[in-house]
């Protein structure tokens, strides 16, 4: 039977965490239409997504320390307010430059909802309990890629792409209301004392000196960057290259969420039985095997939508084991500075993802079919596996890692 407090935390934190990703996934089906309406190129519209990720990454290093110093709720409310204002600007954007700028502002706000819930998890739980809550968060979080693209395609069909951002504004206001009325402060006042800029810089230096933390942060960053390569280019590959409709694209995109959900629920039992490092290693192995096979087939000239969808389903199932588990293992040794540690993980992840998306675009994007995107996914899976191997091997030998 699920603990009531654990379930409540999962629902609240999962919904808050999902606001930013929902704002990404919802407008993916509209990106080709947005390019036409704004008289912009595909690369310019994709830049609005890159700007969002850059803001998510860089500003987490602001929200994390602030949440250590002033508690979790106030920085989260400020961030959600900025998210609402930026999304409103996107809805009214007259050109691609304004869209990119407003998406950056929205990202500055949305990153609060990405980093602070992870710190709240660490405030309340550790070990397998934290992994269980992480898996439950992933369950709520995974609803976003199922519903968001479908909702976006429906809004585009009924009212046009600008109303997508109108809906996102409403969702941001709902999240802000949820924080105001339902989320209690999880960081005690006594824990905040002594948190200064110098202390924050010292905490960052401590984290960077920790080879175990560095390796796990990079493992998670490379793993998620493989998904971001898909996120930034899949709508053009599937809609323009393979000829699917926006609604069909939403359905296909939702299959990845099904893989995440199944893997996240399996994750809890596997962590209890085998430990966190074991789960991460197996998830990375499945992720790498499926993406490498997809790359090999693509290089061999196999350019079929069903092959792309099936192997990405398997790959992102493996990622579903990795994504909620790596941060838990990375934060185990750094509970006193969980906000800063969580922020640094998020910064590395988002900046790495933005660089990968830009690299895929530089390789030709969808102009060369699915190959650049698939190469980005497989390359990131390989890097995650290589970087994570030493840290996971050493962590497996410690009782804390087994939980």
Automatic annotation (TrEMBL):
Subcellular localization: Cell inner membrane; Cell membrane
Gene3D superfamilies listed in its UniProt record: Multidrug resistance protein D
Domain Major facilitator superfamily (MFS) profile: 1-393
Segments passing through the bilayer: 47-64, 76-94, 100-121, 133-157, 163-183, 215-239, 251-271, 283-302, 308-331, 343-363, 369-387
UniProt KW keywords: Cell inner membrane, Cell membrane, Membrane, Transmembrane, Transmembrane helix, Transport
Keyword Oxidoreductase: no
SUPFAM superfamilies attached to this UniProt entry: MFS general substrate transporter
Primary localization class, coarse: membrane
Keyword Cell inner membrane: yes
Superkingdom of origin organism: Bacteria
Topological relation to the membrane, as annotated: Multi-pass membrane protein
Family: Belongs to the major facilitator superfamily. Bcr/CmlA family.
Name this polypeptide is given: Bcr/CflA family efflux transporter
Organism listed in the record: Sphaerotilus uruguayifluvii
